[in-house]
Amino acid sequence: MSYKYWRVVCKYGHVGRRNEVSVPRYIQTDDSCSLIDVIDIVSKMPGIKKSGDKMYGIVSAKPINEECYLKGKIEEKENLFLKKLMAFNIREEKQTVLI
Fold this sequence. Notes:
Blueprint: E1 3-12, E2 21-30, H1 35-43, E3 58-64, H2 66-78, H3 80-98
Antiparallel strand pairs: 1-2, 1-3
């Protein structure tokens, strides 16, 4: 199976009053996915900025090669904001299960 790789710069909220942080995310999709599909996938990720029914949390999205994707995934694992976001989401899921 062949894949497409994407670099999507996302705006995340909840970093202070009316503040945001932009973080590049690296996405792997199957070969049939288009840019619109990638935007739809990213818009459902936790923490992405939204305003009512319109989603404005994506700064840019572009296709990349596999080498850039692998380097980007390493950078994601080292990103302090994403570490905190993932830890919070895991803790939240555990609390939901306990209730």
